[in-house]
Amino acid sequence: MKRSAIFLSVAVLIALLLSTMQAVPALSAGNGEGDRVMVQYVHGQRGAAESALHGVGAQFHYSFDDLDAFAVTIPAAAVNGILHNPNFVLVEEDQPRYLIGMTPSVAAGVSATDTIDPDGQVVPYGIDMVQARDVWDADRDGVIDTGAPTGSNRTICVIDSGLYVDHVDLTGINLLGGYPAGWNTDYFGHGTHVVGTIAAMNNDLGVVGVTPGTINLYIVKVFGDDGAWAYSSTLVDAANRCASAGANIISMSLGGSKSSTTEQRAFNTLYNNGILSIAAAGNDGSTIYNYPASYASVVSVAA
Question: Helix axis angle, 232-244 relative to 261-272, nearest 10°?
Fold first, then answer.
């Protein structure tokens, strides 16, 4: 792997080495009237499968044609019938996915292990722990070295709680855009923290990122202002949007305790298409598996 590609991957790895997973609330079916599930239908039988789901009053959330799958909420009494319908090969729970990492209040302030560079900005301890500045500021003069690899021709897609685009330490970053409407707001703060860890500008303000202000960024917002959970299907849709935006790397500081066959297939497809997916697994030193971090096609980051 080229040096610049390794460096860019490290940027995402450090962004995901945050803190611990939030408390897991009780699972909701989404509309309170049924079971939220992912269903895989027999290849070539999309129409028949869709008709069967409509027939039981399904609420459609997503359609993943490349996976022969739908994400739907169906009445609990209808699940058994769908399981025995020959047009379907899999019915599984649409698993919840939660934010992993620091809240804004925890992220504030300067740690005793951080340093101050010549411009007066904070260099978080993790930046030098992974030798990031050895790549672009070897002489520690606070200036990006001439010709240093910075990932300027690569794209990272951050799936999180959005981005506060007017943050002073992110002014000038290369934003390609995002999804959905409102991606450029972040009242929870988690996504902005992750993006700042990756790409905060090299200036005299705040902190400096692992690859400061040079990469292309695309933002997909899946968590609301309260940081409440999303679903496996939400994540698959977000990852597909990252791929459509030309992402080379997908950053996910999120996860859940249960795997999803459909979600795993989606990340296998992304991997086979040359996209590197990186997901957090928390900093508890736990041996518990988290997903999507624990899929073979995803890089798991934990401490």
Answer: 10
Categorize the per-residue pLDDT at 100 as very low, low, confident or very high, splitting at 50, 70 and 90: confident
pTM of the full predicted structure? 0.87
- Torsion over CA: 202, 206, 208, 214 (sign): negative
Q: In 3-state terms, the chain is what percent helix, strand and coil (to 5)? A: 30, 25, 45
CA distance 52 to 54: 5
Q: Which residues 6+ apart lie within 8 Å of 263 measured at CB? A: 38, 95, 232, 233, 235, 236, 291, 292, 295
- Name 67's Cβ contacts closer than 8 Å, sequence gap at least 6: 40, 236, 262, 265, 266, 269
Q: Establish whether the linkage from the previous residue to 149 is cis, with ω within 30° of 0.
A: no
Q: What pLDDT is attached to residue 108?
A: 46
Tokens of 130: 């992974």
- 107 or 67, which is more confident: 67
Which residues does residue 158 pair with via DSSP β-bridges, in sequence order?
A: 219, 251
Our CA angle for 128, 133, 136, nearest 5°, is: 165
pLDDT in tens, 198-217: 999 999 889 999 999 899 99
Cα–Cα dist 89/101, whole Å = 36
Q: Which amino acid is at 153?
A: N
The CA–CA distances, whole Å, from 128 to 2, 112, 122, 138 equal 20, 14, 12, 11
Q: What integer is the mean pLDDT of 79-92?
A: 96
d(CA 212, CA 295): 29
How far apart CA 4 and CA 212 sit, in angstroms, is: 13
- Give strand ranges (E) for 42-198: 59-64, 69-74, 88-93, 96-99, 115-116, 122-123, 155-160, 174-179
Strand locations in 10-79, DSSP E?
Answer: 35-41, 59-64, 69-74
